[in-house]
Amino acid sequence: MSTDVVSDEPLRTAMVERLRDMGAIRRDEVAAAFLRVPRHLFAPEATSLEQAYDVEAVIRTKWTEDGTTISSVSAPQIQARMVEQAGITRGMRVLEIGSGGYNAAVIAELVGPDGQITTCDIDAEVTDRASRLLDEAGYSRVTVVLGDGELGCPQFAPFDAIVVTVEAADVPPAWIEQLVEGGSLVAPLRVRGLTRSIGFTKAGDRLVSTSKELCGFVAMQGAGERPRLWVPLRDGKVRLRFDEEPCPTDPGVLDRAFEAGQAQTWTGVTVRSGESIDTLQTWLATTADGSCLLSYDKDDKELADALADPVSHSMCNAVVDGDSFAYLTRRRPNEDTVELGSRAFGPNADALANTLADLVRAWDRDHRHGPGPQYTIYPAGADAQGLDGPVVTKHHIKIVTVWPQPPSDSDAPR
Ligand SMILES: C[S@@+](CC[C@H](N)C(=O)[O-])C[C@H]1O[C@@H](n2cnc3c(N)ncnc32)[C@H](O)[C@@H]1O
């Protein structure tokens, strides 16, 4: 990348100010680390300086023939949030899974000369590039390892923190084993189709969550690759996406649901236009039976009209119950307000639309303004009987999601 004409310094300073303003950077030492590392040196030649220092810009570095990104330099805002989630400080031993160079350089600044940073990637092209760029930028003390992050990096363990920068559908035992007691794991974890960067602290054989951030990451390759399960309806123009559990019903039955009855319920719950419904999505995904995500071809006008405004064309919470399914919809009583509703198809449409609507009302009443859920990760063999919340079972782990109890009337100020 050419830096002949414009210096990157003002852009770097502006990036850090913006990251602070948006709450992505909270500590001074994190700001100092982001100020010191020249991010543009880790971007491909064709990247403009403005793009390199744009807080939201993901810079693609490798993609497949069909255009799917398989490697990138992640956006500064999520890199900053994740190093904050991990609580990285001087002297720590840190493992980054998924390399690019820039994030490892920021971590190298944070851990300082007495710390240790290892970055591991499954792709030799990525590790070669990261090694070269780190050397050129003066960060040759970052150890770059070629390998499947599923196994962690036993030759450099234990670690005070592990930061996973690729979407993980599970938590393999190596990550827990290679962390010190009280150490942090931060990973973009996919649970019931929704991916959030979750920060955990290790407590014995468990991980207990301490933070959660919205994020999007490229999919894991190698032994930890877990494809999503798609159920096509209407010749694939509507799709239901499952994750850990397959579709509980024969897909043909659900395709016929379109002709077997429909229902629409409005909840009276409103959100501001553009307001995040992150906790609602997580609430529905973790508590609703038969939870899945609906997507559809939004350019098909007839179909879009029939579906009547799902809250998203690519990731709309839905539930399946036997021969019927329901999903979240919206309408706009005015320009600034969106009312949430549920629409259902199938013989059981009325009941299912009401069930989903009741869950939305419960979120609004009990959890909308609360701290959100706490996740605890147990080994897959843990006895589910003793666990105190909805359990999602994966290959390696059980995840228990506990939503805080809403304050009772007797707690109200008098
Ligand atoms: C978003 S990029 C990493 C970005 C990087 N941390 C940065 O500096 O911004 C994700 C990387 O994860 C890598 N990856 C995918 N599966 C992996 C696995 N099983 N083990 C290690 N790396 C993996 C990909 O090759 C890709 O380079």
From TrEMBL:
SUPFAM superfamilies (UniProt xref): S-adenosyl-L-methionine-dependent methyltransferases (SSF53335)
Compartment(s): Cytoplasm
Pfam families: PCMT
GO molecular function, one term: protein-L-isoaspartate (D-aspartate) O-methyltransferase activity
Protein keywords: Cytoplasm, Methyltransferase, S-adenosyl-L-methionine, Transferase
EC top class, as a word: transferase
Entry EC no(s): 2.1.1.77
GO biological process: methylation
The keyword Cytoplasm is assigned to this record: yes
Similarity field: Belongs to the methyltransferase superfamily. L-isoaspartyl/D-aspartyl protein methyltransferase family.
Protein name (Swiss-Prot/TrEMBL): Protein-L-isoaspartate O-methyltransferase
Species of origin: Streptosporangium lutulentum
Highest classification ranks of the organism: Bacteria, Bacillati, Actinomycetota, Actinomycetes, Streptosporangiales
